[in-house]
Amino acid sequence: MTASPRILLVDDEPDLLDLMELTLVKMGLETDRATTVAGALDKLAVGRYDLCLTDMRLGDGEGLQVIEAASALVAPVPVAVITAYGNAGNAVAALKAGAFDYLAKPVALDQLRALVKSALKIPATASADIPARELIGRSAAMQDVRARIAKLARTQAPVHISGESGSGKELAARLIHRLGSRADKPFVAVNCGAIPETLMESEFFGYKKGAFTGADADRNGFFQAADGGTLFLDEVADLPLSMQVKLLRVLQEKKVRKVGATAEEPVDVRIVSATHQRLAELVQAGRFRQDLYYRLNVIELSMPSLRDRVGDIPELARALLDKLGGQDVVIDRDAEQALCAYPFPGNVRELENTLERALALCEAQRITAADLNLAPTQRPADAAAGSKYPLQDYLDQVERAAIVEALEQTRHNKTAAARLLGVTFRSLRYRLERLGIE
């Protein structure tokens, strides 16, 4: 007969211990108690626990000591912390120290039950082998990324993924979700830069029938759609300040209010965010709220650019060709060298587009350097090295790099790219033709 999961409860308030114990026993779980840090450490040293719930402030120390001890065990025990209402600093510190999740006082029983159910589904070990088949590359940078994703999958802490456009941020977010305890729940990806500001609140939080003209039925938003799972906020830096305030409240309260509703409803969502911009610099410039930055950037995952892992390009190119249906197509040596020499400002996404074009142009099932169409004048790296002559070639390099980056940032929406570049759509179309950008 399998033993029931056992939970260690650590708090110096008897009433709260009674309440949590009663709730967990009704869930069919076994519990144990400690009222001090010392007592918790003693019990962790000799007992077997599947989860620990600890207050952050105890008479003889901090909950961080409990997290540290539980994480150092041969079989680490996931820890969730209980913090004072509105004390975001404590919650963030706990998550950075390795806590699985947190609850705010007064403890809401529905949130407690959801947290415990999620924690008990965490696998005993998280394998880096699964993402290795998708995040391709044997470079040290990619090995570090895979190992970090495996660790992040075991927590509920908000993760911020940084990296250039096309470097695989969404793929990393999906792997964090798929390897974690929420894998059987929805993964909802949202491009924050693609939603008009006037529609943001209703898109994120939903609306009630009659809330505005055209609202002919109740509708759920992104948070309700991702309930129990993961909400991926891509290009989160594009959120206007007015929406940042509302998002911060949802993250703090774990509740949303539909447009036109009078009551809030609880949501259980893990947030993973990403942007190609530097959030810390946007905070300094006053374009991104500092308190929201700390909420989102509890743990950062940095995705390396393709330029930083050139050695992975041959293996990655082969895998992408197979994905594109070119299993029998060979990349000749000159083409492989050309790929490794090209800086790829659009990273993996640009590499895939390049190979797709080459696959259509190649003959006799062989891709040559000419099929890749990677002309030397298209290499921004030359400009960085000081190659500014002839002047027109240099200016073309800079212009091409800016246009490619804008297209990648807007997911190849030419109208949006033109707006971002500050030129007309007609002007952009002319430049695309002149520079040979497809």
The count of helical stretches stands at 21
**CATH domain fold name of the largest domain:** Rossmann fold
Terminal-residue CA separation? 63 Å
CATH superfamily of the largest domain: P-loop containing nucleotide triphosphate hydrolases
CATH architecture term of the largest domain: 3-Layer(aba) Sandwich
List the domain count as a whole number.
Answer: 4
CATH top level assignment of the largest domain: Alpha Beta
CA gyration radius, whole angstroms: 25 Å
Helix fraction, binned, reads 40-55%
Tally of DSSP β-strands: 16
Question: Sheet bearing the most strands, described?
Answer: 5 strands, parallel
Proportion of residues in β-strands: 5-15%
Structure class: alpha/beta
Instruction: Name the poorly predicted regions.
Output: 377-386
Task: Give the SSE layout.
Blueprint: E1 6-10, H1 14-26, E2 30-34, H2 37-46, E3 51-55, E4 57-58, E5 61-62, H3 63-71, E6 79-83, H4 88-97, E7 101-104, H5 109-119, H6 129-132, H7 140-152, E8 159-162, H8 169-178, E9 187-191, H9 200-205, H10 222-225, E10 230-234, H11 241-253, E11 255-256, E12 265-266, E13 270-275, H12 279-284, H13 290-296, E14 299-302, H14 313-323, E15 330-331, H15 333-341, H16 347-361, E16 366-367, H17 369-372, H18 380-384, H19 391-409, H20 414-421, H21 425-435
Parallel strand pairs: 1-2, 1-3, 3-6, 6-7, 8-13, 8-14, 9-10, 10-13, 15-16
Antiparallel strand pairs: 4-5, 11-12
Question: Can you describe this structure?
Answer:
This protein has 438 residues and is an alpha/beta fold. Helix 1 (14-26) links the parallel strand 1 (6-10) and strand 2. The chain folds into four domains: 6-119, Response regulator (Rossmann fold, 3-Layer(aba) Sandwich); 129-302, Rossmann fold (3-Layer(aba) Sandwich); 306-374, Helicase, Ruva Protein, domain 3 (Orthogonal Bundle), CATH 1.10.8.60; 379-438, Arc Repressor Mutant, subunit A (Orthogonal Bundle), CATH 1.10.10.60. The model is unreliable at 377-386 (pLDDT under 50). The chain has helices spanning 14-26, 37-46, 63-71, 88-97, 109-119, 129-132, 140-152, 169-178, 200-205, 222-225, 241-253, 279-284, 290-296, 313-323, 333-341, 347-361, 369-372, 380-384, 391-409, 414-421, 425-435; strands at residues 6-10, 30-34, 51-55, 57-58, 61-62, 79-83, 101-104, 159-162, 187-191, 230-234, 255-256, 265-266, 270-275, 299-302, 330-331, 366-367. 45% of the residues lie in helices and 14% in strands. The termini are far apart. The strands form five sheets. Strands 2-1-3-6-7 form a five-stranded parallel sheet, with helices on both faces. Strands 9-10-13-8-14 form a five-stranded parallel sheet. The chain is globular, with a radius of gyration of 25 Å. The chain contains 21 helices and 16 strands.
